[in-house]
Design a protein that fits this description.
Helix content of chain A: 25-40%
Strand content of chain B: 15-25%
Largest sheet of chain A: 6 strands, mixed
Largest sheet of chain B: 7 strands, mixed
Shape of chain B: globular
Number of domains of chain B: 4
CATH topology of the largest domain in chain B: Rossmann fold
CATH architecture of the largest domain in chain B: 3-Layer(aba) Sandwich
Strand order of the largest sheet of chain A: 2-3-1-4-5-6
Number of strands of chain A: 6
Order of helices and strands of chain A: EHEEEHEHHEHHHH
Strand content of chain A: 15-25%
Oligomer: heterodimer
Radius of gyration of chain B: 28 Å
CATH topology of chain A: Pyruvate-ferredoxin Oxidoreductase, domain 3
Largest interface: A-B, 55 and 57 residues
CATH class of the largest domain in chain B: Alpha Beta
Number of domains of chain A: 1
CATH class of chain A: Alpha Beta
Helix content of chain B: 25-40%
Radius of gyration of chain A: 16 Å
Structural class of chain A: alpha/beta
CATH superfamily of the largest domain in chain B: Thiamin diphosphate (ThDP)-binding fold, Pyr/PP domains
């Protein structure tokens, strides 16, 4: 266990849309934390949420974690795999927390039907509320394509997240990625991770 | 060795580690992964039964034979299994019988929020409740031991947050197995005619007294003394929420929620200044503590509805929240939707056009009640669609002719639609009944059932034939349609609605998720921007692959020649599965198949 590990439990909230690989991403984060000797818990809801609805996964780690759910105002980093979803759970972010956003729009039904507009100015609004240094936007689909696997957007996001978890080294992430992913997609995913981390 | 496991995976692991060899149940969120995981272990028998009542009866048989058996279901499944449940409490179990009930506070994937701790008290069955994955693994083992020790079925209750959260679990090897199965003839114990049941009834009360005593020293009921200012009695996941919010207070953490350890509770209450019970849903513990004459606060400050989190506990105990005030922007909701290419879309689109009352059922297709499909008018519980349609059609008489339809999924029909379809045939219903047959139990994640031709453990099985079954039950008019053929679907619906007597339509097309490889290879569709007149007909089928784009967003100049047109429909090729439904709806022939 790292010497600098505090007693405080840290919380991540991963949000997005069913099918974006959020549950696998949060599994990987937990595995990394467990291997580094942290207590770790995560929670998400299966079932109806898989049918194109919102998906969230809470990940919490520290010396001893009780609740797998973070409370409102207590999340260190919100990681939104979809642009609009970054706004939905903003009340979970703690003062001074960070929002990481994958720059991808997936229309909810009312927007598809032309009954509502996809909100504009999301990044401006986030930056105005949280301060420009607390919002990071990355073009996940473009980076995943560059890495050679369009489906690796979730790994790009893991790379981005890794930058903001200084207590975990890059090799610890890569070790777990290599262990948990099918062999034929490991290379592209490690590249996607690096691109995300460098973004 | 440590592993990260969900509560459900940990239950399956624990059952296997302690020598359970038998599991039966019916899929239902949040319980499904327990049997799915258990079925993977070597040396066990696991089955999907048609419904929870059958699953429990099968498990009772295994326990009577001396095995360690479990019946696994979601909270509402226990309603279905309630008949054998209340009487197996009298007979006892010989071997071990554990009933797992996975409750769903906040109704993440359920039709109600019932608190199944009430079943434990009602049926006089002990109940253990784990708070995390490690406890889930430990408690399932204890549950089997307890069942054998006290000759009683035992409940293990989880909630969605226990079942679907992952936490660190210590893995152990499987205990040495000893085959204890045998045939034992014990008619006085197992034949529940009144004279025997009266005797067993007394045994149940004796057993409950013995269990009460046992609960007093059960290590899973543990006191964690902190500050004596506040004492909290809690169990299951809410323990974690309370410890997270107030680690400094004193706790009585109950691992067994029925029966309760009265002496332990009295002793704990006497040591703290202010006593709270922290529990989700019903005031189950609170009312019993109050009945002991102990002053306690619970639902006066905590909600009856929805699951808790640490913030709820903080607000309940302090009256305020420490979270910074954030004003959330109003943004479009993102409800779940039928997948692109889902065959149910074709069926419910056509049903909406009939203007009939559509009595629906439980499954993915329940989502079709939402706009724009708006193809369903009611949904109560598994199997209810057919009975409700029949009752409505009878009550309306001639007024309801051609206006009442009951729709039920294939797995749901097998679960509890067969007897009710028999009833509709026998009592000469005038409604039309539809089996939305997508060849799988899709909502819970593609489980096999008697009509798929495979068992839970992957063995080939005899496929149930819905057409033949409909005829045997007494339905004379049985039709099979492909719901993605819009014209034919509409015609068959119209024809069957006009007929006298009950009709059965089998709407058959495999779930698009079963077909995902084929769908990926299929030729996708696109809209021709020149031909699209912006009428939005294609949007009314509610496919997530089709979206409305105004000219600006579509990167097109406005069209002065068509003044009213504001934009066009656009199909996302990465989502389109080539099901062709939208192309069949388009009157402009503006939706075309990709070449190549």
């Amino acid at each position: 266990m790292d010497k600098d590990m505090e007693n405080r439990v840290k919380s991540l909230l991963l949000a997005g849309v069913g099918g974006q690989g959020i549950l696998l991403a949060s599994d990987i984060i937990c595995k990394v934390m467990m291997e580094k000797g942290y207590d770790v818990k995560k929670s998400e809801v299966h079932g109806m949420a898989q049918r194109g609805g919102c998906v969230t996964s809470h990940v919490r780690y520290g010396k001893k974690v009780y609740s797998p759910l973070a409370r409102k105002g207590d999340v260190d980093i919100i990681v939104s795999f979809e642009k609009l979803e970054a706004l939905r759970y903003l009340d979970y972010l703690k003062a001074g927390g960070l929002v990481l956003v994958n720059d991808e729009e997936i229309y909810p039904p009312s927007v598809n039907l032309g009954e509502a507009d996809y909100p504009r100015g999301i990044y401006e609004s986030l930056r105005a509320q949280l301060g420009p240094d607390h919002v990071k936007v990355v073009t996940g689909p473009e980076m995943a394509a560059r890495a050679g696997n369009r489906r690796a957007v979730n790994t790009v996001m893991l790379g981005v997240i890794s930058r903001f978890i200084p207590e975990i080294g890059v090799e610890d992430w890569k070790k777990v990625l290599a262990k948990m992913l099918p062999e034929k997609i490991i290379e592209a995913n490690l590249k996607a991770f690096d691109l995300g981390r460098a973004a | 060795m440590q592993e990260l496991m969900s509560g459900n995976e940990a239950i399956a692991r624990g059952a296997w580690e302690c020598g359970a060899t038998f599991g039966a149940g019916y899929p239902g969120t949040p319980s499904t992964e327990i049997l799915e995981t258990f079925a993977q272990y070597k040396g066990v028998y696991a089955e999907w039964s048609p419904n929870e009542k059958v699953g429990l009866e099968v498990a009772i048989g295994a326990a009577f034979a001396g095995a360690r058996a479990m019946a696994v279901m979601k909270h509402v499944g226990v309603n279905v299994a309630a008949d054998p449940l209340f009487t197996v409490s009298y007979t006892g179990t010989n071997g071990a019988l554990v009933i797992i009930t996975a409750d769903d506070p906040s109704l993440h994937s359920s039709q109600n929020e019932q608190d199944n701790r009430n079943y434990a008290k009602f049926a006089k069955i002990p109940m253990l409740e784990p708070a995390d994955s490690q406890e889930a693994k430990d408690f399932i083992k204890l549950a089997f031991e307890l069942s054998e020790k006290f000759d009683t079925p035992v409940f293990l209750r989880t909630t969605t947050r226990v079942s679907h959260s992952k936490s660190v679990v210590r893995i152990e090897p499987q205990a040495a197995l000893e085959d204890r199965t045998d045939i034992r003839h014990l008619p006085l114990k197992y034949v529940m005619v009144p004279i025997n049941a009266r005797t067993r009834r007394v045994e149940v009360e004796k057993r409950t007294l013995a269990l009460r005593e046992w609960a007093e020293t059960f290590p899973g009921n543990r006191v964690e003394m902190g500050s004596a200012e506040v004492g909290i009695i809690t169990a299951g996941m809410p323990y974690n929420y309370a410890k997270d919010a107030f680690p400094e207070y004193s706790y009585l953490k109950l691992g067994m929620v029925n029966p309760l350890p009265e002496k332990l509770i009295r002793d704990f209450a006497s040591k703290v200044k202010k006593l709270y019970v922290v529990e989700e849903l019903d005031p189950f513990i609170e009312e019993q503590v109050r009945a002991m004459g102990i002053e306690v606060t619970g639902k006066a400050v905590f909600p009856y509805t929805n699951e808790f989190d640490p913030g709820v506990i903080e607000k309940g105990l302090t009256g305020a929240s420490s979270a910074p005030a954030v004003t959330l922007q109003t943004i479009p909701p993102r409800p779940p939707n039928l997948c692109p290419g889902c065959p149910h879309r074709g069926l419910f689109y056509a049903l909406n056009k009939t203007k009939a009352f559509v009595s629906g059922d439980i499954g993915c297709y329940t989502l079709s009640y939402m706009k724009p499909l708006a193809g369903m008018d009611s949904c109560i519980c598994m199997g209810a669609s057919i009975g409700i349609a029949h009752g409505m059609s009878k009550a309306l008489g001639p007024k309801g002719k051609g206006k009442v339809v009951g729709v039920i999924g294939d797995s749901t029909f097998i679960h509890s639609g067969i007897t009710t379809l028999l009833n509709a045939a026998y009592n000469r219903s005038d409604a039309v009944f539809i089996i939305a047959d997508n060849r799988t139990t899709a909502m819970t994640g593609m489980q096999e059932h008697p009509a798929t031709g495979y068992t839970l453990q992957g063995e080939k099985a005899k496929e149930l034939d819905f057409e033949a079954l409909g005829k045997v039950l007494g339905i004379e008019s049985v039709e099979v349609i492909d719901p993605l053929q819009f014209k034919n679907t509409t015609e068959v619906l119209k024809r069957e609605l006009q007929k006298d007597g009950p009709s059965l339509i089998i709407s058959r097309s495999p779930c698009v998720l079963l077909m995902s490889k084929k769908a990926a290879r299929a030729k996708h569709f696109f809209t021709d921007p020149e031909k699209c007149i912006g009428c939005k007909v294609c949007l009314t089928c509610g496919c997530p692959a089709i979206s409305w784009k105004d000219f600006e967003k579509a990167g097109m100049p406005p069209r002065p020649e068509r003044k009213k047109q504001k934009g066009i429909a656009v199909i996302d090729a990465t989502l389109c599965t080539g099901c062709t439904l939208c192309a069949q709806l388009c009157r402009q022939e503006a939706i075309l198949r990709e070449d190549g």
